[in-house]
Amino acid sequence: MTTDTPARLLQLLSLLQTPREWPGGELADRLRVSRRTVRRDIDRLRELGYPVQATKGSDGGYRLVAGKAMPPLVLDDEEAVAIAVGLRAGAGHALEGVDEASVRALAKLEQVLPARLRHRVSTLQAATTPLTSGDGASIAPETLTVIASTVAGQERLRFGYRAKDGIESRRLTEPYRLVSTGRRWYLVAYDLDRGDWRTFRVDRVSDPFATGARFTPRELPTGSAAEYLRRSIHRRLDSNEYTYDVTFAAPAEWVAARLPAWLGRPEDIGDDDGGDDGGSCRLRTSTSDPLEWVAMRLALLGCEFTVREPVALTECVRELGGRLARAGAPDLQG
Q1: What is the pLDDT of residues 280-313, one digit of tens each?
Q2: 82: which residues sit within 8 A by CB, 6+ positions away?
Q3: Mean pLDDT, to the nearest integer, of 38-56?
Q4: How far apart are CA 197 and CA 186, in angstroms?
Q5: How far apart are CA 18 and CA 281, in angstroms?
Q6: Distance CA 232, CA 174 (A)
Q7: Distance between CA atoms of 179 and 100, rounded to whole angstroms?
Q8: Taking the complete model, does pTM exceed 0.85, yes or no?
Q9: Cα–Cα distance between 240 and 163 in angstroms, integer?
């Protein structure tokens, strides 16, 4: 018989959080207590704010239903590991729809995981390779959780940073928000050494360290971290942005499913535009990504395409095609 009431309540709560109805007799057997004790424990859970619904009948039944507020969850070892692995996989690749809230949830979960479970999570993640549609660099989940914790706790953050030109530096910041673009994670923060707001690509951050020093958040010039990031990116891209015009020998829906969403969506074209009445499509977009990367993405689509502009991309595609052709026919090389 379970005589420790708090432990018994946690065990009962864990059972009720399984999406099914539990007969009173079965709960009593599981907990090794009387049905009367089960009823008292149910009343205690209700007093704590857990919406437990009872059904009438010869044996009666209990089910945890949705309430007005989110009560604390009780997870067993396997459930905790599964959730942590899933959050790590999504956060580490900046998947579209996985935002700062997911990273905060991961930070909270890993903070309370026992060492043995943290080891299991790390081992399982190291042994698996997620198949994702994102093209951004992967990030160590520990980096994201440290940053998210300092954002939530309004704690100054120190880290190493590698700029685009490869120059390494140390930064001391007041972290404001993590922002996911669907391809990369960015940190919007106030840089104390430079006395101004900055955006940092998280995949270039190393050795993040929470200093323990608290701060009062400053007012962001744009009011929104996402808007500040958008303006910051546009300022950097204006000087080296290319406008692309590419036609594909495939329908727009087929091409769109194979291109990153942030590159834009192609439109079906007909005979007037040099197409074949819906069998072709055309993409007009702008990006500052390296020409080599764009050429590779186009080649990976698996359909015929024609680059209308820019000329630099045409030359890059020809060079890539020649290199691939030579690699595929080594016996023909002199």
Answers
A1: 999 998 876 777 888 888 888 889 999 998 888 8
A2: none
A3: 87
A4: 13
A5: 49
A6: 18
A7: 7
A8: no
A9: 17
Are 295 and 315 in contact by the 8 Å Cβ rule? The answer is no
Sign, Cα dihedral of 12, 68, 79, 55 = positive
Structure-block tokens of residue 60: 């009666």
Q: For residue 158, give both structure tokens.
A: 């120190």
Cβ atoms of 192 and 158 within 8 Å: the answer is no
Half-sphere exposure of 55 (CA within 13 A, CB side): 13
Q: Is 307 exposed, middle or buried (0-12, 13-18, 19+ CB in 10 A)?
A: buried
- Contact present, 316 and 279 (Cβ < 8 Å): no
* Range of weakest confidence among 1-10, 249-258, 280-289, 301-310: 1-10
**Can you read off the two tokens belonging to residue 297?**
């993405």
CA 257 – CA 252 distance, rounded (Å): 9
Residue 191 φ then ψ, to 5°:
-85, 110
Distances (CA, A) of 293 to 135, 157, 243: 10, 33, 15
